[in-house]
Amino acid sequence: MFRFIHSSDLHLGKPFGRHDEDVRGRLRQARHGALSRLADAARANGAKHVLLAGDTFDQETPAPTITRQALNEMAQAADITWMLMPGNHDSLAASELWQTISRDRPENVMLALTPEPIIIENSYLLPAPCTARNPGRDLTVDMAQPTPEGAMRIGLGHGGIHDFDSHGTVVAEGPSGTIAPDRAAQAGLDYLGLGDWHGQIRVSANTWYSGTPEPDSFKHVQCGLALAVALSGAGASPEVTPVKTGEILWQRTALELTPDDDPTALIDAVLPALAARRDTLFHVSLSGRVGVKQIQSFKASLARVGPDFLNLSQDMDSVKLAHEVADLEAIDPSGGALRQAAESLAARAQDADLSAVDRRIASTALSQLFSFVAEQPS
């Protein structure tokens, strides 16, 4: 039985530029920590090898500290052999990166820089390293090359087979140059481990995308995962078991409100457990028709729980303001300048001819106007 961990898309050194410095630091730390968690996953599943199917690094020229610290982390897991293969983000075009890794790598780090078969215990690894960010052809065609009769054959590739939605459902065939969906059968592979798609997907019984061990966006609903694979012999179906490796959760939820809904109750119903919030990026998108008071309640509820999270964000672009006469009268019962301003803002907030940004600005301004008036002594 040959056991190994299949992973990909660590994207070490990813900058996470949209977040503030504290969040960026935490996310980068979690990505680096994925290396030790992959080693732990290997030990827990009786494996001595971790096969990384591309994009170990986020850039072709990562900072020297990123490369060195990654190699140091792998060296500390001396009982594990690491196989690194270039992906599209860290392709062979990054010659300086791979020269540095070749020079500095510890003894337990192996490199798959050519399509030549690599012997791993009683198996043959057939890698398809990315030659460039967009190779323009299916590099896995070389996996059909011969190996000794009866040997187990493992392919390692990086790229798309199909286009997928955020749930991993096939929505279209990929463009030219993508990997043939039946490559494992064509090349006589016992297992084909793929990288590039950050969500874990079972393409067939012996072809899998491992997904990233540490998520980096809200695109995928899964936590960080890897795959524990066991091969019992040539021609036998592999045993493939998903393994949780993620530390940070990226959770999003969508709420559609009506004027009768209580935003606070709805938000409280979808919040993750308190113990998990410190390591969670939580994004709430709101849609529907809501009143001014509801918008205020919604924002107040998020402000109340915001400090619990690593990061909390909101999207109100799809909200349509359902103002009531009572709301406008509360702003200015006399029908004076404030009332006229409120009516103008309410009209702009619902104007389908305006952009979502302009409607949101009008809605925010109306909400602030309402808050200002509500805070004044009666």
What does this structure look like?
The chain is α/β, with parallel strands linked by helices and 378 residues long. The chain has two domains: 2-244, Purple Acid Phosphatase, chain A, domain 2; 249-375, no CATH class. Helix content is 30%, strand content 25%. The strands form four sheets. A six-stranded mixed β-sheet has the order 4-3-2-1-13-14, with helices on one face. A six-stranded mixed β-sheet has the order 5-6-7-10-12-11, with no helix packed on it. The longest helix is centred in the first third of the chain and has 24 residues, at 21-44. The protein is elongated. The N and C termini lie far apart (79 Å). The mean pLDDT is 89.
How are the SSEs placed, and which strands pair?
Layout lengths: L1 E6 L13 H24 L4 E4 L11 H13 L4 E4 L10 H10 L4 E3 L6 E3 L2 E5 L24 E7 L3 E3 L5 E4 L9 H4 L4 E5 L5 E4 L2 E3 L15 E7 L7 E6 L4 E9 L5 H8 L9 E11 L1 H14 L5 E11 L3 H7 L5 H13 L6 H20 L3
Q: What structural category characterises the helix and strand content?
A: alpha/beta
Strand content: 25-35%
Order of helical and strand elements: EHEHEHEEEEEEHEEEEEEHEHEHHH
Strand order of the largest sheet: 4-3-2-1-13-14
Tell me the number of strands: 17
Main CATH class of the largest domain: Alpha Beta
As residue ranges, the low-confidence spans are none
Number of separate structural domains: 2
Average predicted local confidence, pLDDT? 89
Silhouette: elongated
Per DSSP, the total helix count is 9
Radius of gyration: 26 Å
The helicity comes to 25-40%
From the coordinates shown, what is the CATH architecture of the largest domain? 4-Layer Sandwich
Q: Let me know the CATH homologous superfamily of the largest domain.
A: Metallo-dependent phosphatases
Q: What's the end-to-end separation, in Å?
A: 79 Å
Topology-level CATH name of the largest domain: Purple Acid Phosphatase, chain A, domain 2
- Largest sheet entry: 6 strands, mixed
